[in-house]
Structures are given as structure tokens and as C-alpha cells.
Design a protein that fits this description.
Elements lengths: L10 H9 L3 H15 L1 H20 L28 H15 L3 E6 L8 E3 L10 E7 L5 E2 L3 E5 L4 E8 L2 H4 L6 H26 L4 E4 L6 H7 L3 E3 L5 E3 L6 E8 L16 H4 L2 H5 L30 H11 L5 H5 L4
Parallel strand pairs: 3-5
Antiparallel strand pairs: 1-6, 2-3, 4-5, 6-10, 7-10, 8-9
The structure holds iron/sulfur cluster (SF4) (2 copies).
One iron/sulfur cluster binds next to helix 10 and helix 11.
């Protein structure tokens, strides 16, 4: 038994089951409707297409794409011999490369297996029954996939966590599709960084699992890598960068010195602030005290003391044809 999170419960999948169609189809349909009637939305469409390009090719978003396409858990152009250098030396080139690829910040976490999904849904956004596989750890040298499981080597014990920056001003601008463009750019940048970084680690002779929203919970891993802590809005509040960031990661057996873990709970400032809850058009962020709202079906047990109603959030996106992200844009720590 595992108490690891069942990723078939994430809102992208659960809302698709509730709608009886892939959420993204309904969302894109709504965007097209808006473009027919709103000149501002029509003008933003080409930028949105460009912003989404790599997100769509690699993900989209990543969930349900574990070991698929560019998020494959092995292969790539260069599988090299293991470089015999000290862990400290690997850390230097990995973090340097992450920055050169476009990460605004990067760190190394000890991989706590609690944050790896217990099972994943490999027919993303299916309106019917989820087709799931467990994620298992086994004493194998290379990742593999069987009929019932995606298998990670036991030696995979580090996560290189990368943050890509978004523009908080654009997220809160209220201009048609502006937040959608910024959000999709964030995902496209994430894809570039983790796919490239995974190839680099494989070229050094080690296992590398590139992940966007897939495979493992991003916010606890970012906190474990000392990059920030969760906020009331359920996203990361990154040191220096605030909430206008997206988180991606590469799981690996590369020997890397980890960063000191940071706090795993929201800062005290969130108790009195609540700006994100007031700004949320979907009423998805609890406005009350810590622990007052019980976790919903998309939340993990014992998770954020302000469990966000992720399905209500995504339903708002679908209804309005807009990736919202106001919560990240208005956060005074952004
Ligand atoms: S993205 Fe928008 S709808 Fe979703 S939780 Fe944030 S403010 Fe609310
Ligand atoms: S807006 Fe305020 S309450 Fe919400 S995450 Fe940011 S600091 Fe915390």
C-alpha cells in the first residue's frame, strides 16, 4: 500500500470526467468563441499559439505523459559513460546548465518518495474510465515500463528542481488571454529546460526523468530543494521570485549534493493576507483560517492547510476560455 498521491484525481482528469469530454477541448472551443466576438482576444490568438507551441509538443502540461514522447524516461541522442567526478562537481554543471537553459532558479532535493505519484492516468483527460499505472521503485539499473507499472530505479534519489519565471504584471493585467499566453510560455519554457537537462544528465551516463506536472508533486519538491514554500493559493512562493513561477523537475541517480530543505508549510504572512482568496474569481481558494476547509477530491491528505478547489479553478478557465493565474499575479510576494 502506498499513501502516495493518485494522479488520476488531478483536476485536469477529474473535470474531464465530469464534463464528459476532455477539458481542453471545451476550453479551446470557448477561446475560439471569444475570438469571434472580442477583438482583443482575436488579436491575442497568434501570441497564444506561439506560447503554447512547446507546451503542446512536449506535454501539454505533462500530466498523463509519463514516459511518453519527449518526456520519455530513457533514450535520447546521447547516453554516455558515467563521468567519474565528485558529487560537488556534478552539482556545478547541472545548476549552471539549468540557468543557461532559462531557469530563473534551480536547486537539488533529496527525492522523498512520498512526493512521487502512486499511480498515474495514461489516457489524459479521458471522459470515461481512467487507464492507470502505478509508479514503482525497483532495484533495476534503467527505468522501464511493464503492463502494470512505470518502474523507477531504486537509485533515483535526487530531484533537480527548476523554476521558470512568469511576468506577474501580465498575469494580473486583465487583458484578454494575456494570462493564458504567460502561463503557456511558462510551460513551454519548463519543457525546454527539463527535456534538455535530462539529455545532458544521460550524456553524463546517469538516469534522468524529465517532468512537468507529471510523475511527482512539484511544490513539495521545490520546498525540499530550498527554493521556496507553498502559499495559501497552493502554488510555490519562491524566494526572491514570489508566486509568478512555474516548477518543473528532473529525477535522477546522478550523485548531487542536495540543498538544505526549506519549510514545507505556508508563511505566517498568508494567515493575515488572503489577497489571492479575495481575487480568485472561482472562489477556489479558502479565505478562512488554516485547516478550516477540509481537503477536496483533488487534494492530498495532510497537504496545504488551505486546500484549493482545483476543479472549481479549472472549470472557471473552461467557462471563460482563459488560463487565470490571478492568484499568482496579485500575490504581494510576487
Ligand atoms: S488560477 Fe484563478 S481561478 Fe484558479 S485558483 Fe488562481 S485565482 Fe482562482
Ligand atoms: S496572496 Fe497573500 S495569502 Fe495568497 S499566497 Fe500570496 S501571500 Fe499568501
Amino acid at each position: 500500500m502506498t499513501d502516495r498521491f493518485d494522479a488520476s484525481r488531478i483536476a485536469f482528469h477529474s473535470l474531464s470526467r465530469r464534463l464528459g469530454r476532455p477539458w481542453v477541448d471545451a476550453y479551446v472551443e470557448r477561446i475560439r468563441q471569444r475570438a469571434r466576438t472580442e477583438p482583443g482576444a482575436r488579436r491575442a490568438l497568434p501570441a497564444l499559439a506561439g506560447a503554447r507551441a512547446f507546451n503542446l509538443r512536449v506535454g501539454p502540461y505533462g500530466e498523463g505523459r509519463e514516459n511518453r514522447g519527449l518526456l520519455a524516461w530513457s533514450g535520447g541522442p546521447a547516453a554516455g559513460r558515467r563521468l567519474g567526478v565528485a558529487p560537488g562537481e556534478h552539482r556545478g554543471w547541472v545548476l549552471d546548465l539549468a540557468g543557461r537553459l532559462g531557469a530563473a532558479a534551480a536547486g537539488v532535493a533529496v527525492l522523498d518518495r512520498r512526493w512521487v505519484y502512486g499511480r498515474v492516468q495514461l489516457n489524459p483527460y479521458a471522459p470515461g474510465e481512467p487507464a492507470c499505472k502505478a509508479i514503482a521503485f525497483e532495484p533495476v539499473a534503467e527505468p522501464r515500463e511493464t503492463d502494470g507499472a512505470l518502474v523507477l530505479p531504486d537509485a533515483v534519489n535526487r530531484a533537480v528542481v527548476v523554476l521558470v519565471a512568469m511576468d506577474a504584471g501580465r498575469l494580473r493585467s486583465g487583458r484578454p488571454l494575456e494570462a493564458s499566453v504567460e502561463t503557456n510560455l511558462g510551460y513551454s519554457r519548463m519543457a525546454t529546460v527539463v527535456v534538455s537537462l535530462a539529455d545532458a544528465i544521460r550524456a553524463a551516463g546517469y538516469v534522468a526523468i524529465p517532468c512537468m506536472n507529471d510523475t511527482a508533486l512539484s511544490v513539495p519538491l521545490a520546498a525540499a530543494a530550498g527554493l521556496g514554500r507553498p502559499g495559501r493559493h497552493g502554488m510555490l512562493i519562491a524566494d526572491r521570485l514570489g508566486s509568478a513561477v512555474r516548477v518543473a523537475k528532473v529525477l535522477t541517480d546522478l550523485p548531487l549534493e542536495p540543498d538544505p530543505a526549506g519549510p514545507a508549510d505556508p508563511p505566517e504572512f498568508c494567515d493575515t493576507c488572503g489577497v489571492c482568496a479575495s481575487a480568485c474569481p472561482a472562489g477556489a481558494i479558502p479565505a478562512g483560517e488554516r485547516g478550516e476547509t477540509p481537503p477536496g477530491p483533488c487534494n492530498r491528505a495532510h497537504g496545504n492547510p488551505w486546500p484549493v478547489d482545483a476543479e472549481a479553478c479549472l472549470a472557471w478557465w473552461v467557462e471563460h476560455g482563459e488560463s487565470c493565474a490571478r492568484c499568482a499575479g496579485v500575490c504581494p510576494l510576487s
